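lol ok so funny story. i was supposed to be doing the assay writeup but got distracted and ended up predicting the structure for this chain instead. priorities right. anyway since i did it might as well share w the group, maybe its usefull for someone
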Amino acid sequence: MGDETSWLLPLIALMLVGYFALTTWLGKKGKAHSGSMKGFAIAKGKVNPAVVGMSFGASYASANLFLGVPGWAYTYGLSTLWYTIGCFGVTWLGLLLFTKTFWRYGQKNGGSLTIPQWLGNRYNSKALRVLVALLVLFNIYYIVGQNVGLATMFETVIGIPYLWGIAIGVIITVVYVSLGGAFAQIVSDGIQGATMAIVSLLLFISLLWTIGGGWNVFGTLQAELRAIDPALVSPLSTGGPFYSGFAILSIQWLLFSFVLLPHLMNKVLTVEKEEDLRTFTLSAGISLFTLSIFSVFAGLAARIILPGLSSADSAIPAYIMEAFPVVIVALLVMGLISAILSTTDSLYLGITNSIGNDLFKVLAVPVLYKNKHLTEQELDAKVLKASKVSLVFIGLVSLYMSINRPESLALLTNFGTSAIISGIAAPISLGYFWKHANKSGAIASVVSGAGCYMILTGTGIIEHVFQAMFFSSILGFTSMITVSLLAETLRKREKTSQEAVRGL
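and the output, tada:
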């Protein structure tokens, strides 16, 4: 791009100012809907279901799909397509299976605002609600992954120091989420999702002039990759996440269960009417397809035209610098920034809602306000304040944790999500379909599944994050079934004994 690069920093800076102005305006607009905990957490019925569906896809995409997974493609080649195809097909299948029942359960007992509250209501257990809220805190690793992705983008494209890039992302997101809550987050994500879709398509179309080959562009891409290393066109990769059929199966299980994550399933609770769920799931499916499939090909192309990058996660930023004129680069960079921030804001909202609604309300309020007889409105105001205060705290913690750059952005983002899935997959799914599911089994599943995952990854017994999650979630299902049946049997025996005593 030559001397044109001198215009890149001012262009992106101008767009960032515009972006910050837009999100701040959305935050102020959303303030009218976020005066209560319900409005702040889910903005129920305040956003069109098609926009909520687009927001779902945008929150799903993140730095992982636009930076981390193309980084895998740069390193491991075509085997990475196992991940991207699963992101659309397997995740959307999970969404279609879970949405309606999840929504119906979420309407009971006055309505649920968070996954921990949903589980607490489903199993009538405050202990389970608190345990899952603590597990949700693992999403801090996902936020750190987004911070790293944003900083990598700024550093690679326009030379902004790594730490400054992290600080910019944290400040922008915390400001507009604290102002407008779920309304600002969902609407801004819907806009960002549309921008990200355009970026994905441009990245894919660019292969026509960076790789060439016309209608045979895929053949040319495969031939070029084979010339570099035949392993790059193998369905399995040596030393990477896709090294065996079982490893790929574990990844598909992750992607199927991914839909259960708190920052995604909360979108379902935003939909006001059951008939609107069809619009929501269709919009989410289109968004997932567009945002999941196309960007990985740019990572493959980067391996051909830009060999020897020091960081695989910088493949996409480096590629767009090589493939596009400066004005388009600026637009693409803003699209990639949107991909990162659209997930970050959902994660912040999910964590802080759980801190306020499920930890502060359940654990702290009965102690701090024991004899004050708070009204519902007073209690709601205090819980809302706790959520907003925790938002700033989580932002600072994530900034601190992001200082040291990880080796793989994709592995970091999947570490925390895998811990959560290991604990909640069984209680949510069996809670739909199995009449014997009860709170004893659900608690056992959360403790054993998440505990097993932390032991396996912490000790290095299983270093593959996805396999550790697979085995841990299987243990979670086994524990829940066993303990639920045992608890049911003990209750029946106790009931029989009491009846016998009364008969005497």
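The chain has one domain: 2-407. Residues 376 and 382 are 10 Å apart (CA to CA).
back to the writeup now i swear
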